[in-house]
Design a protein that fits this description.
The protein is mainly alpha-helical. It has five helices and two strands; from the N terminus they run αααααββ. The protein has helices spanning 2-24, 26-32, 40-59, 71-94, 99-119, and strands at residues 126-129, 134-137. A two-stranded antiparallel sheet has the order 1-2. Strand 1 (126-129) and strand 2 form a beta hairpin. Helix 1 (2-24) packs across helix 2 (26-32). The longest helix has 24 residues, at 71-94.
């Protein structure tokens, strides 16, 4: 659980930063990412969605992911990063000289891989010990 907590914290912080940038500086970000003049509102909506993901990940960072209740969070993050990585790889192939786009693609690819492990494997049982004995929580 310690590893998923640090992953979710890092994920929330990075998505929060990207969401804030897209919400308040959409045209500047689109110029850096070689986006072909998308409507400003679409970038701001993308930023709002990323801020929503950041809040979701921040509040669930202490939960057991992959279990019955954390499965939706891990699957949602996996799908976001997997589809985003595929789109960014396509865009990066056309603009390989853009370091910001390459870094964003690497970020999405890494988190797609990480969340594939989190989403598609059963969480390990955690042994809790108390004064009277021990129990296993799945």
């Amino acid at each position: 659980m310690k590893h998923t907590q640090s992953i979710m914290t890092l994920n929330a912080v990075l998505l929060g930063i990207l969401g804030l940038l897209l919400s308040f500086l959409p045209l500047e970000v689109s110029g850096r990412l070689y986006l072909n003049n998308p409507p400003e509102i679409m970038l701001q909506l993308w930023g709002a969605a990323l801020l929503g993901y950041a809040m979701l990940n921040w509040t669930s960072r202490g939960s057991i992911l992959g279990g019955i209740y954390g499965k939706a969070i891990s699957l949602g993050n996996f799908m976001h990063y997997f589809v985003g990585a595929a789109a960014l790889i396509k865009l990066t192939n056309a603009h390989a000289d853009n370091i910001g786009l390459v870094l964003l693609s690497i970020f999405y690819i890494l988190f797609a891989i990480i969340f594939s492990f989190i989403a598609f494997r059963h969480p390990k049982a955690i042994k809790k010990t108390s004064g009277k004995g021990s129990s296993t929580v799945v």
